[in-house]
Protein: AGL108Cp
Organism: Eremothecium gossypii
Amino acid sequence: MTDKAVAKLIEWLKTSELTFISDKIEIVQDAASGRGVRLKQCHINSNEEIIGIPSEFQLNFHSVLHHLSQFNRKLVVPGVTVTEPEGDADAEDPRTRAYGVLDANTVLQLSSFQLLALYILAEWVLLKTWGCETQSFWQPFFEIFPTSADLRAIPAYYSLQFASTSKELLPLLPPASACHCRRICELVQGDWARIRGILEQWNILFADRETITLEQQFEHFLHIYFVINSRCLYTPVPLKDNRDDNFTMVPYVDFLNHITTVSEHCYPKVESVRRLYGGVGRFSIKCGPHAYRVPMEEVFLNYGAHSNDFLLNEYGFTVDENEWDYIDVTEVVVSMIEKPEHVEFLREHDYYGDYTIAFDSVSFRVLVALALVATDDYERVNKYMMGYITDDYFGPRYSSLLLEVLQRARQFCEAALESAKKMTTADRYCTESVIAIYKGYLRILRHHLDSHTD
């Protein structure tokens, strides 16, 4: 991202009178933390609006459907698509041919992810290969998208790339990250399978042009997919009932970086009025309880109470001493539940698996499992689950087992950390991100081990 790209973005956004970008803030590129929004002058007070972006500059299912219909009048969704009085599509524009292969039923059955990935791939990448002389309306937004390098630490991204030395890190991913990575990979591959047929139609349609191969299109699709995934913001989208489809992409807002503190910094607000194409309303960012007073202080938006495993897999970064971190010790605890009767009892009461430890607490699920293993007393454990018996009774009995869990988990993390540190072929930033997760785990485990020995 360059200063010129930012200037073009702001110029584009300000073509609407509904756009608001406070003159108290500016975008700053920092070598350590990357780009972000900082306080330039004056003060920003609680509930003060700092950014407001109208719906015509947002990328979501509705806005994409509207723009597709500009080149395909067969796409008719009342209140969303272009109406006939707005003029005929430009027959010379290759998008008229490309988008003309789509029908309303096909488009409406696509998920928001699938439609946005397909549309951005067409407008950002394929348009010039089709010989289009007109720049996409969204080009200023595309120009400030994160680069492939910005997103390279996302495990699912380097897992799915044709050639990435960081694939060697996959066996070193902790269980929570490995599970998250597999889930995202399945989603990406499913979405690619859904839109691949349309891309193949386009490739045949423009076979006489210097188009890129389907394999190259997949690489671009991956980049775009993770741009969407890391930059989308939740908001209800009409026509879509699935929560996963309810999101929008908002220029400038995506410059705001994450902070782990919840309910203090900036927060989003979507206006129910001022909707365009029947879609979402004007998207604004307002200052939370934390007022900004210090020049060059960074302005933050909390993305949610997320662990480093989540942040790495969804956004491609980690946070030092993340207060929302936890370690999954399911494998260790399950290995200690040897009796089939114990497994059956825990399954029956929904206490089997999903065993975690956070910095401030060991999950009750862990304690219940260890209490059963330690005592074999089903009646008392049942009362323990119901709150009739406390840790005063069970604590001394499962104490040695809990210590074993902590020690075994620490040994695993220390070994994995050493293996990651010795990794020389993988991308260094990707490696450091995995190392950061294990360091967070060890911080949690050492805290509990210290408390256990006090």
In short: The first strand starts at residue 20 and ends at 21. The CA atoms of residues 266 and 287 lie 4 Å apart. The chain has two domains: 34-315, 326-452. The two ends are 51 Å apart (CA to CA).
